Structure formats: C-alpha cells, structure tokens
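tokens incoming
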C-alpha cells in the first residue's frame, strides 16, 4: 500500500499565504504568541506478509481439537514525514521493517462418557507468542527522499509468552454446574534497546526537530536488561438453576496482563507528538468477582449483575499537553478498584407483535486507591515537560464513565421490514489520573454523550437487503481526544452469498 497524507491550513499570514509551521514554534498576533506544533505531509509505504493456518474438529463427541498458527512480518513499513513544511524541505524517515509477531495455540476438549461424581467436559491446551519490534529513524534535508539520510535513533526489543491451561466444566448435581480452571504463563522480554546515533548533548539546537526531541527523550544509548516472569491465573464459576426460569451465578477470576513490546521499547518522536516508552513496566494483575441473576419469562430475559475488581500495577498511558506537541507515557498504577451494577432486559413482542426492546443501565465507581509513582522518572526526566505531579489517590479512574445506558427499540411490521431507534448515553469520564481535565467538551479531552440513532431495513429476498438511517440525530458534539462524527445520513445495500 502506498499512501500520501496531505494537509490544509486554516491559518494565513498577513500576505495571505497559508501557515503550516513557525521557525520559532509560535505565531504572534497583536504581540501575543500562540504556540503551535505544525502540520506536515507524509508518504507511507506499507507492505506486510501475513499468513495463518487453522485445523479444527467439531464433532461434539468424545474429543475435539483446534490448532491455530498465525504470523505477521513487516516487509516494508516506512513513513517519510516532513518536519518543517512551508519553511524548508527537511524531514525524517520512520522505518519499522522487520517488526512482527508469531502466535500458536493448541486446544483440546475431552468429554468422557463415564461419569465421575457427575458429568465432565475438560478443556486443555497451550499457547505461544513472540512479538518483535524493529524501529529506525533517519533524518535528511529532503523529507521525500529515503536514500542518503543520516540515522539518528533505533528502538528494538522482543517479548515472548508460553502458557499452559486446563479447565473442567463439571455438572455435579442436576441443577449445579462448576467451571474451574487455571493458566500457567511464562513471560520474558529480551534484546531491548533504545539507541541514539547523534552526539548527545549538543551545544547548539539540532537542525531537525525530530532528532532534537529524540535526544531529549532518549538520554543517550540504553541496553535494557532481560526479564522473565512466571504467573498462575485461576478462575471459577458456580451456577445454580434455581427454577426453570431463574439462574444464579457467581464467578471469580485472576488474570495477568504483561507489558507489550511497544509499551516497553517503542520511543516515538514526531512534530505532532512524542510517545515515551517505559522499560521498567511491571505486569498488571486483576481479581474479578461477579454475581449475576438471570430470569426468563416467556420469550423475555432480565439480568442483574454486581461486579467488583481489584487491580494491581495496571498499565496506564497518560497524555500531557506541553508547550507544543503532546507527550504520552506509560506507568503502573499500584492499586485501583471497581464496583459496579448492571441491569439489562430483552423484551419480545412488547404491547404488539413484532415490537422488541433491548435496554441496559450500568453504574461503575472506579477509584484510584494509591499511586506513589505518579511522578514517574520517565516524565520527570523530560526537561521540557512541566506538569504538576498531583497525587491521584481517591480520584476517578480514567476512561471509565460512572453511568452508561443504552436502549434499542425495533419494530418488525412484516418479515421484510424492520424499523429501529436507539439511544446511547455515557456520563463524562476523565482522561488523566488526577482528574484535572475538567473541561470535557474540547479537542484533546474526553466527553460523555447522549446520542439518538434511527435505521430502517428492507429485505428484498434472501440475498438482497437495503438499509438507510441517521446516526446522531441530535448532532451531539462528542470528544474522544478528537471530535466524533456528528449527524450522519447513510444508505447501504448488501448482497449475501449464503
């Protein structure tokens, strides 16, 4: 794939020419400087090789198996990026060729005919994955040229996970079922490095903004120590069929999530933003508890769930707006917990045949309990980042709205026609751990939403379907860093080969 990313500036100078960048990093209007981080075009060359193989049996008999292998290799993934468009032709090349991953999973299911204190269905298997990062940065006087550029930085590293698991689904009494299992994981990371090929420090500003930012962030050459972790994750779920209509279920699970190769090693420095890697990240773990009651009445279903989670060392990315481009970094949050309740209903033929309603309401209280690492050295080491290190203990956990609700009403007047309306609501979440981003309705922030949608579908026959509708009827202005789509009209026609 070859792609060109152009741009259009809405800022013009007094002579009428568009402004894309500034030699000083700011635009002065009436004596007041307005800092910008510029807009620059880019060229992409993206060629990847991907293959996968799956061998599976699904007899539902004594034994079934599932074998899956996948592989992805970046043959040539190169971004040629201008750094000072409208002022000069300088730029950088970002080459990720050689990165990729390989995964393999083997799963078996055994359904013994002989019962031992009840009926059993045993699942077991193994897993392997390896992710490799290879990233090179070069700079030169001509951003559109690749040959002859000067290398100035490299990020590399590998993560690998080997795992074994077993699970038993045990129906030990007529109305009772227990699902219990465990997963043993062996995770390691090695060959990690962040290399700086340009002299550091420099007495004078570097001639190209990319390399200057790379130097500031990388602080020279770093060869990271190899690490390995062994982790066991148990889980259990006990369900009771109290009556023909009522099911009660309680569940517990412990899970680990290991840092990705990008979080550990991928340092990125661009004119539009910098992402700082953190090679010291710890694996995160979570204890999850769930109590659920499901009640069926006729063709209808009602569900009520209470859930609680305790999380340790959760890996969180935080983006800070500096003078110029934003900076994103990763850190572990030592302790958080989540408490929530969710109610949902699925109703058929409400008031009249063909009228269906699906609705749900969720409340989540997500709180940061402790975070003594908020002044992370990865941020404190950046001399050009001046962000107040406020303690987020007791604050709302980022990205989690306290309230969410959804309902969908669908009417089927005939077998061919269906008309539906939907409502989606979420309260304002925070993006930062210390909750100082109180202005939600702006670029760079996260906001809640109240959105109404409508859709009509007509099925001509078993192959052809036509649909049309409106998304976000009320034209609600929603932000998730950037603005979301506003009122949108759509029409589609689909042919199904099945």
């Amino acid at each position: 794939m070859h792609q060109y990313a152009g741009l259009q500036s809405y800022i013009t100078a007094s002579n009428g020419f568009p402004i894309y960048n500034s030699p000083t990093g700011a635009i002065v209007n009436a004596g007041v400087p307005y800092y910008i981080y510029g807009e620059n075009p880019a060229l992409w060359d993206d060629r990847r090789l991907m293959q996968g193989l799956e061998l599976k049996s699904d007899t539902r008999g004594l034994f079934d198996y599932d074998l899956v292998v996948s592989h992805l290799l970046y043959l040539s993934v190169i971004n040629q990026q201008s750094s000072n468009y409208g002022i000069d032709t300088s730029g950088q090349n970002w080459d990720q060729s050689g990165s990729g991953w390989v995964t393999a999973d083997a799963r078996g299911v055994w359904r013994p005919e002989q019962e031992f204190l009840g009926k059993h269905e045993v699942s077991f298997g193994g897993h392997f994955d390896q992710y490799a990062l290879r990233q090179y940065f070069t700079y030169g006087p001509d951003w559109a040229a690749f040959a002859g550029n000067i290398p100035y930085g490299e990020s590399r590293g590998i993560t690998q996970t080997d795992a074994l698991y077993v699970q038993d689904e045990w129906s030990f009494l007529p109305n009772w079922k227990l699902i219990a299992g465990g997963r043993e994981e062996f995770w390691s990371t090695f060959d990690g490095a962040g290399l700086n090929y340009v002299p550091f420090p420099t007495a004078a500003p570097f001639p190209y903004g990319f390399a200057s930012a790379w130097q500031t962030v990388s602080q020279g050459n770093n060869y990271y120590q190899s690490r390995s972790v062994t982790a066991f994750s148990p889980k259990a779920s006990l369900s009771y069929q109290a009556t023909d209509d009522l099911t009660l279920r309680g569940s517990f699970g412990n899970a680990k999530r290991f840092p990705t190769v990008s979080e550990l090693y991928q340092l990125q420095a661009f004119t539009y933003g910098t992402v700082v890697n953190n090679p010291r990240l710890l694996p995160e773990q979570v204890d999850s508890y769930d109590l659920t009651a499901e009640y069926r009445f006729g063709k209808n279903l009602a569900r009520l769930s209470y859930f609680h989670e305790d999380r340790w060392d959760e890996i969180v990315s935080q983006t800070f707006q500096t003078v110029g481009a934003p900076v994103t970094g990763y850190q572990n949050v030592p302790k958080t917990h989540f408490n929530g309740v969710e109610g949902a209903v699925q109703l058929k033929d409400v008031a009249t045949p063909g009228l269906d309603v699906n609705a749900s309401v969720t409340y989540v209280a997500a709180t940061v309990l402790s975070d003594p690492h908020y002044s992370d050295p990865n941020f404190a080491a950046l001399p050009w980042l001046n962000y107040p290190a406020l303690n987020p203990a007791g604050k709302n956990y980022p990205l989690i709205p306290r309230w969410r609700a959804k309902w969908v009403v669908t009417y089927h007047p005939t077998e061919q026609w269906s008309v539906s309306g939907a409502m989606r609501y979420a309260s304002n979440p925070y993006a930062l751990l210390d909750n100082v981003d109180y202005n939600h309705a702006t670029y760079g922030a996260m906001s809640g939403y109240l959105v109404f949608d409508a859709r009509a579908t007509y099925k001509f026959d078993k192959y052809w379907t036509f649909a049309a509708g409106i998304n976000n009827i009320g034209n609600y202005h929603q932000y998730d860093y950037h603005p979301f789509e506003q009122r949108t009209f759509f029409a589609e026609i689909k042919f199904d080969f099945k």
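note: The domain at 46-495 is CATH 2.40.170.20 (Maltoporin; Chain A).
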